[in-house]
What does this fold into?
Amino acid sequence: MARHVVRKYPASMSLRYDLVIVGMGSAGLTAAEFAASLDLQVAVVERDRIGGDCLWTGCVPSKSLLASAKVAHTIRHADRFGIAASAPTIDLPTVWRRVRAIRAEIAATDDNPQRYRDMGIDVILGQAAITGPNQVTVTGSTRDDERTLDTRFTLLCTGSRPVVPDVPGLADAGYLTSESLFELTDPPASVAIIGGGPIGIEMGQAFTRLGIETTVLQRGEAILPRDERRLTEMLLARLRSEGLAVHLRADVTEVKTEGSRKVVSAVVAGRTIDVVVDDILIAVGRRPNVEDLGLETVGIEPTARAIPVDGRGRTTVRSIYAVGDVAGRHLYTHSAGHEGIRAVRDMFFPGKGTVDDFVPWCTFTEPELAHAGITIAEAQAQFGDDIDIWQIGLDHNDRARADSASDGAIVVITAKGRIVGAHILAPSAGELIHELALAIREEMKLDDVAKLVHIYPTLATSIGQLAAKSAFERAHRLRWLVKRR
It folds into this structure.
């Protein structure tokens, strides 16, 4: 473990490092810890709060809110388990305080700046700007507080922020994004969510379960458009059955105010509807944080979606890498951490490191929707008719029936016998998907998965059942080999 050294530097002093990391979100935290374990001289620069989007505005607070919402839903439907159901008493300000308390606990422990200082990492607060291929200048709270960091390599992990659509009247009416949602002390009684991606759908279900009247306005023809359509349609039916209003092919045209309320106008199926609510949540996507980084100084030209990088995570300046949301590959905490580690490996170890494009993901509704590999539509486009689709519903899973949670299914896609896509709509789908993700990564056949004995009764039993179908079909084709009297 790196020795903890406390240093005090005067302003304007030039310092020399092996690696300077700009941004201490998911990618920066992971990369810093890995680099420190290699006995490298590392500095990290953060202009706001350690922990980034995941801790403060993304994964942690949203999943904390979903957990509270699940409890409310369970109380409301306890009769499924032979227990008297009742209407839960929900104190929204208390729910939101719980969310902030969980953030604070993580910030004080795992994401505490002192934890990284104890690893021997210099933690510097301020605005970083690239001032040369091997130089980063950090400006503190005043212009006089400026220091120059000379470095062999720079790793940009500055993340992203919500996109706000250009809708007439929206700015005047006011709105929430993931950056302001969890700071509320008096959450609204009704919300319109613009956007039907993971954030919009997760929060839509959470709000509805917490008694907040919620409407989702999704411009596309399906929710969660990157996921398997068979399963998103099943999930949509579940959400609507819980009371979440979802309008597809909804083009938001205007926002107005009526007293203290907001009116969101949208064209849906050729007619205009008005959704009157207390507040609006914007969830239509994200854009990279590239402003004020001084990229133009070294000729790096970001696009509207990312800082361009090669397969090793390098920008056009070979000593400067970019990973995580700002590099625009996959906007997930787990992929950001992976990219950060791979970039450090590429900088300091022999050979070439590559960033993995195969990244599974999960939307944490109930049931969860997990995704690995390609969808049926993508497989058809890539392989034509040379694919097989394997599907099993949870209504055939004994554990799901015992838990009164049999809404869902598992879909596996094979091409030339090998698994190329896997999609799960089920409780704990985010846990279940890893077995199939590994199978895809290792180019395994569904028959290979059948060789593993799956524990009964578990939800994963259905993966074994699906794999067994493939093995049974193969055995049927080879039945002529059966020993007979």
Observations:
- The CA atoms of residues 12 and 147 lie 4 Å apart.
- The first helix runs from residue 26 to 37.
- The radius of gyration is 25 Å.
